[in-house]
Amino acid sequence: MNDETNHPMERDPLIERVRAALRAAPEGASHQRAVARVLSVAFASPRRSVFRRALDAWRTPAFTRLGAVAVAGAALVLGFVTRGAYVAGPDTEPMTSSGSPTGEFPVVRASDIPSDERLIPTQFILDDHKAASVSIVGEFNQWKVGATPLTRLANGVWTATVPLSAGRHVYAFVLDDTLMVADPRAPKAGDADYGREGSVVMVFAP
Amino acid sequence: MPDTPPSSSIDPTLPLRAKAGDRQAFALLVDAMYPRSLRFALHMVGNREDAEEAVQDTFVRVYQNLGRFRDDARFEPWLFRILANRCRSLIVKRRRHSDLIQYGEVPDRAQLVTNGVEKDWTEEIYLILATLPAEQREAFLLRHVEDMAYEDIAAVTGVGLSALRMRVKRACDVLRARLTEVIRDE
C-alpha cells in the first residue's frame, strides 16, 4: 500500500534500510506450535453470546434509527434466526473433513472417532483427469512418493483419507510419481520442505 | 530477506467464513497472520514472551468477537487495532509494575531472522527504535513495516491523519539522525 499519501521525506536510503531490517520475519521454527497453542486457547474460550451480539447490534447507529415497532419486529426475527443458527449453525458442522465438492463422498465426523484415538481421518481430493496415478506426500509419510496413493473414482476425481494428528500439516500431490503439485483447493504453504509450493491443512481434535 | 507474506495473500472470504463458525477458516487466518502479528508485537514490546502473550490474547479476542466483525470491513486493520491495544497495555503494565524494564532497554529480538547484509546495523536500528516513544514507534511500524495506508493506521490507532503523519515523520527524523551518527562513527 505504497499510496500517494506517503510523505516524500520518508523515502530515503536510510529509512529504506531501517524498513528492510525491521521487516525480517520472526523465526519460523516455533510458528507451528505457536499457532496450535493460539488455536487451542481460542477454541477453548467462549465466543460472544447471541445476546451480546444482539446488544452490540442494538448499539449501532443504523439499528437505533429504527423505530420501536421495527425494533420489536427485528427482535422477533432475530429470535428465530439466532435460534436456528444455534441449533443448526456452523459450529455443528464437521471440522475435520476437507469436504466434498460434489457431495458424493461420505463425511468423516471427528466425533465418530473414539476419544482415545489421536489420529483424525482427513479427506483429500484432487480433480485431475489426465493423471494415471496420484499420491499424496507430506510430513505424515516422510514425503515418500507413492506411500499414500489416492483412489480414482468413477467420475475421475482422486481421493484419499489420511489419518492425521491434530495440528497444521503441509502436503502436496504427486502426479504419475514425477510431478509435485499443490492442492488447488487449499491455502498455499510458504514453508514447504521440498522447495516447491505446498498446501496447508489444519486438523482439529474432536 | 525473509519477509512475511503481505496482507493481500489472505483469502478475503476467510474472516467471513470464520465469523460464520468455520474453525478451519479461523485457523488459516491465524496461520497467515501470526508471523506479521508477532513481528509487530516484538518491535512494540521488545521481548518474545510479552510479544507472544499479546499475539495470543489478540487472536483469542478476535475469535470471541468475530460476531462483531462487519461483513464489509477489512480484517487486517481490525486485527492490528486489537493487537496494538494489547501491546500498549503490556507496555504500560510492564512500565508500571517492573523497574527492571527500562525505557530504551535493548530489546530481545535475537529470534528475528536477518539476511546478514544489514546485520551490523540491525542491532543499532533496534536500539534506536526502542528509544522512540511508543506512539511514534507504533505509527512508524504500521506505516513502514506493515505497509499500511494512513487511513488504515488511523482506524488502528484512533488518531487523526495529520497527527499520524507527524508521528511517522518524527520517528523518521530520529532514525535518520541517529543512524547518520552511527555511520559517521564507523
Indicate the proportion of strand residues of chain B. Answer: under 5%
Write down the overall geometry of chain B: elongated
Give the CA-CA distance, first to last residue of chain A. Answer: 40 Å
By CATH reckoning, the class of chain B would read Mainly Alpha
Write a short abstract of this structure.
The complex is a heterodimer of chains A (206) and B (186). Chain A has 206 residues and is α+β, with helices and mostly antiparallel strands. Helices cover 29% and strands 22% of the residues of chain A.
Structural features:
heterodimer; A: 206 residues; alpha+beta; Immunoglobulin-like; 5-stranded antiparallel beta sheet; 3-stranded antiparallel beta sheet; 8 strands; disordered N terminus; B: 186 residues; mainly alpha; Rna Polymerase Sigma Factor, Chain: A; 8 helices; 0% strand; elongated
Structure, described:
The complex is a heterodimer of chains A (206) and B (186). Chain A is an alpha+beta fold. Chain A contains five helices and eight strands; from the N terminus they run αααααββββββββ. In chain A, a hairpin with an 8-residue loop joins β7 (188-189) and β8. The longest helix of chain A is centred in the middle third of the chain and has 21 residues, at 68-88. Mean pLDDT of chain A is 67; it is low at 1-10 and 79-117. In chain B, α2 packs antiparallel against α3 (48-64), α3 packs across α4 and α5 (119-131) packs across α8. By secondary structure, chain B is mainly alpha-helical. Chain B has one domain: RNA polymerase sigma factor, region 2, helix turn helix motif (Rna Polymerase Sigma Factor, Chain: A, Orthogonal Bundle), CATH 1.10.1740. The two termini of chain B are 24 Å apart. The model of chain B is unreliable at 1-8, 99-107 and 109-118 (pLDDT under 50). Chain B is 68% helix and 0% strand. Chains A and B meet through α1, α2 and α3 of A and α2, α3, α5, α6 and α7 of B.
